[in-house]
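Sequence design from tokenized structure. All designs in this work follow the same two-part layout: the structure record, then the generated sequence. An example of the structure record is given first.
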């Protein structure tokens, strides 16, 4: 039997519908949420993602600025732009698209973003608040994974969730959020021994290892929920997740596709964060 497909695209549309309504009423009160995205260089994948963010702003009635800078931009120039946006009253969210060119130190740039405008949730203060369970702006992809699971009606409490990947952007934060939902969480990574033995115990398997089609059916317990965070561009130009969807869907439970799974949710949670940041900065939340 083939597993049900979890459509991130469809769930995103639902959430965006709610956001659109809320923004409409905020605009009437004189508050238009504003997002600034900075893209340095011409990485083709980043260009697609940033265009999708710009489109989402436009569709939902946000004010949007996209700063496209040449790859030769110096760290000082980038920091000066971040500083300017920190001060700018019509901007409530600032996002510097990663990865940055090698001559720029990502940490210094992230640290320069005002904590209240850090809609990526990458600033150490927001990360720290996430770890201790305080209110914070949550990183968009991990928050999108949790929201997608919740809105599909899948229970997390008491379940064994296994996360493959330990990055700061996905693996670590999504593990914390699953734990916050009362799942029992195991983290696997590139050095994990006997990985299949562990992943085969997962009720919920979240894959963020960054290798195309890494997880095949032999990693998955029959009926397990499979969330694919991977976004790999193959040589033939096609997009592939970290999960071999065709083989896994024959034995898994509900499973996300790529594209149309976690990707759209990342952008939807960015829109959500920008709305929250705008309300907090305006003293409305
Ligand atoms: N600062 N850098 C910062 N914040 C982020 O949250 C990101 N990320 C990741 C890369 N760098 C970042 C994104 O925005 C990945 N990511 C992202 C955003 C959108 C999509 C995928 C990744 C997306 O729209 N995916 C579509 C398909 C797009 C395509 O055709 O290539 C999907 O349906 O999955």
């Amino acid at each position: 039997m083939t597993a049900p497909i979890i459509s991130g695209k469809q769930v995103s549309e639902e959430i965006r519908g709610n956001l659109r309504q809320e923004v409409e009423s905020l605009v009437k009160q004189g508050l238009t949420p504003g997002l600034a995205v900075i893209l340095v260089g011409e990485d083709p994948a980043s260009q697609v993602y940033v265009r999708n963010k710009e489109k989402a702003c436009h569709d939902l009635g946000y004010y949007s600025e996209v700063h496209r800078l040449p790859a030769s931009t110096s760290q000082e120039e980038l920091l000066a732009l971040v500083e300017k946006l920190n001060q700018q009253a019509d901007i409530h969210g600032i996002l510097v698209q990663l990865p940055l060119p090698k001559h720029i130190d990502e940490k210094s740039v992230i640290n320069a973003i005002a904590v209240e405008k850090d809609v990526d949730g990458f600033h150490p203060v927001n990360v720290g608040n996430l770890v201790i369970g305080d209110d914070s702006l949550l990183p968009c992809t991990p928050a999108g994974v949790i929201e997608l699971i919740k809105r599909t009606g899948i229970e997390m409490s008491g379940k064994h969730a296994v996360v493959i990947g330990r990055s700061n952007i996905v693996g670590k934060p999504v593990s914390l959020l699953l734990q916050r939902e009362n799942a029992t969480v195991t983290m696997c990574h590139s050095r994990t021994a006997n990985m299949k033995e562990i992943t085969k115990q997962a009720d919920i398997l979240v894959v963020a290892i960054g290798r195309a089609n890494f997880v095949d059916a032999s990693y998955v317990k029959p009926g397990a929920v499979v969330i694919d965070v991977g976004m790999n561009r193959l040589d033939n130009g096609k997009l592939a997740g970290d999960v071999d969807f065709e083989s896994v869907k024959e034995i898994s439970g509900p499973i996300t596709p790529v594209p149309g799974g976690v990707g759209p949710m990342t952008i939807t949670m960015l829109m959500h964060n920008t709305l929250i940041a705008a309300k907090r900065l305006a003293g409305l939340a």
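The first strand starts at residue 34 and ends at 40. We note this feature because it recurs in several other targets discussed in the main text.
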